[in-house]
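Team,

Forwarding the record for the chain on the shared tracking sheet. I've put the sequence and predicted structure together so nobody has to dig through attachments.
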Amino acid sequence: MSKGFFNVPVPKNEPVLSYAPGSKEREEVKKMLETLRSAEVELPMVIGGKDVFTDRKVRMFPPHELNHTLGYYNQGDSSHVEMAIDAALEAREKWMNLSWQHRASVFLKAADLLAGPYRAKINAASMLGQSKNIFQAEIDAACELADFYRFGVKAMSDIYKMQPASTPGIWNYNEFRPLEGFVFALTPFNFTSIAGNLPAAPALMGNVVVWKPSKTAVYSAGVIMEVLREAGLPDGVINLIYAPGPTVADVVLTHPDFAGIHFTGSTSVFQGIWKTIGNNIEKYKSYPRIVGETGGKDFIFADNTVKIPELTTAIVRGAFEYQGQKCSAASRVYVPKSIWPKLKQQLGEMLSTVKMGPPEDFTNFINAVIDEASFNKLKGYIDRAREDKDAGVIFGGKCDKSAGYFIEPTVILAKKPNYVTMEEELFGPVVTIYVYADEKLDETLNILDTTSVYGLTGAVFSQDRYNIEKITKRLTHAAGNFYINDKPTGAVVNQQPFGGARGSGTNDKAGTLFNFLRWVSIRSVKENFVPPTDYMYPNFFPEKE
């Protein structure tokens, strides 16, 4: 093996552009928004490298502008799922035998395309299709997805360098084989980067993939596939299908060549998939890899030494960026009684400056929630809190779906720590605050740790280093990503490996070596250069007189 064989370009996190008034990037994305708004597109499925059209056209529209049509996507059925599996398996041998450098080149080129000529398009598609403001689109769709691809190549090369020791006369080495079959990627609406990474990570390790994106993020998924095809991804390696979830599951999860699932979505869906896999376990050629990141009921815990402006900002950003539609969004907050009056005042003042509206207006902090089902669910919780004796809406709460699915940033004050909005994941711009007695800090930590089934993200705000250590240790299993004096959102690839346990998933840390190891099956090879020629052990020989 020649020196430098494993050298890869040293990745750096893609810089986040400002989109400030007068900036080049601001003008570029504005022009792209106009271009995408003015043309109705028709998105085909991509199976075996071919565009596949059907007679079932589903309308795409911005969640913030229900009357505007972005275009239509072609919905498939079970026959298209089978077609995608067949295409993946047909592509498998050539792709898995392609040298790792050439697999890496595809995704390194895709990263450069996202950071360069496709930056405005992937951002604009996410803004229109998923109602993201420009800052949220930039950090997600362009920067994080480029980071996933670049750092994925580094993780792959680091894995290949993980080799065993050898003794004189023997050479031992590991082969990191792709899984035997195909991988199913089921991706969410809330992060374009996750939608692009979940099928790419297994593919980078030599696997072939069937990819089903969320029906509310088809628009940006089409752009991701466009980027991958331009980057030179061979036909059939990743097959993009638009079919109803149950239809896809019925085919994929019963197929003998199903080798694994890479999932981000709800806990209930993930648990249902896991049960189905268990029920079908005897059908598969090998035990499928199950990798999933699911829900969260993420918390902020403050003590009475906290700096109020920092805590206020963390609540507003942590709870309401991208309308709280992040698995990591701050959803419950615990504050001591002594600081509550001042925090409430500053929180109200800050929220009074927040603007809500379509993302095409770059001054809007809050945009629309993703669809009508989400809107109705959230409105139901807000209406209930208004009437409930154990809670009250103290800020926001207005809901309007006449033009788009708009819900004001809403703050609920709970009178008891196990109120429903302190326990259940809402996935929207709603945060619940519980005020605890200062002297009951330890008791409140116990309540926090046992209130929710989730364990994704959490944060502690304090200026007392002894308290910080105590709280961090006490909440060891409450969050897979834990933040000290920072909001519980905003994990960056290669800086804060993301994932949680308990009801929040398998904690395989997307974008890291730990995740990529899940997509290989290791073969250990031993070669003996000087094989023995006699079965006799040394102790068999008689002692000399």
